[in-house]
Amino acid sequence: MRVIGLTEFGGPEVLRVIEVPDPVPGPGEVRIRVHAASVNPTDTLLRSGAVSARFDGRPGPYVPGMDAAGVVDAVGPDTDTPLRPGDPVVAIVLPYGPHGGAYAERIVVPAASAVPIPSGADFPAAATLLMNALTARVALDLLAVPAGGTVAVTGAAGAFGGYAVQLAKNDGLRVLADASAADTELVTALGADEVVPRGDDVADRFRALAPGGVDAVLDGAVLNGLVLPAIRDGGGLAVIRGWQGPADRGIRVHPVMVGEAATDHARLLRLREQAGTDELTLRVADVLPADQAAEAHRRLAEGGVRGRLVLDFTAFPS
């Protein structure tokens, strides 16, 4: 089969079509014929070599991608799952494992990491759901702000940020968010109660709306310590790039490691349900042929993408 991968780390140009053997599902696994895979910032970190230590010395080729949608085409032996060949599904994929990532004609994942495609969604839209929505769900669960509390979301126009806004509102929270002038309408439509201009001093603007400090911040903009002043004493900060502090005033920093929840089937099913009932908005910025993955990475690096760029694998041979 063909994958979009790399044999050396570098810029977008290192991504190319590579022939590899078909993966074989083992016990507890399913194989999926991929129709669409979304392009996330985590994919660019893999490609650049910024997190190469996670491969633990394993040789390439390396295949990026954490989000896939497609059709089950094989179920491994002794696998307890209602999924059967022919079922359309979405899956969260861990690219640092032995099977590689989602930029592939076929992928093998734990059966617990795949759920039926959301009602009414096509493959490109479905491929934008799980990794970012699960990251937001894990962040909110770590923060554990009771209903009626107040949270702030940075990077609210992004994929993680947009899902964080919607999930927080569904949890009964007051949501403050940041956005550029061009994105204010979008973030408001996602459900934010109040939107302030983004920037390194956004903590001051959040404080103006919540003088006692917000209960927690979900930091999609990776501002880290810059947003601590927005948080009340004893509050929480959820970070998505592993920052661990320091933080004072009793503020708890929660690094969100989405891979640790990749087989939390109940959470994935709930996100799939919410996407099917429009509690979560699936946003596709553009769909590109899979062999244009390098162009997708370049566009993501340029910034300004709203929603997710998606790679179309349907043209790859069966």
From TrEMBL:
GO terms for MF: oxidoreductase activity
Descriptive protein name: NADP-dependent oxidoreductase
Residue ranges annotated for the Enoyl reductase (ER) domain, each copy included: 10-311
Top EC group: oxidoreductase
EC number: 1.-.-.-
InterPro entries: ADH-like_N, ER, GroES-like_sf, NAD(P)-bd_dom_sf
A Pfam family matched in the record: ADH_N
Keyword tags: NADP, Oxidoreductase
Family matches, as SUPFAM superfamilies: GroES-like, NAD(P)-binding Rossmann-fold domains
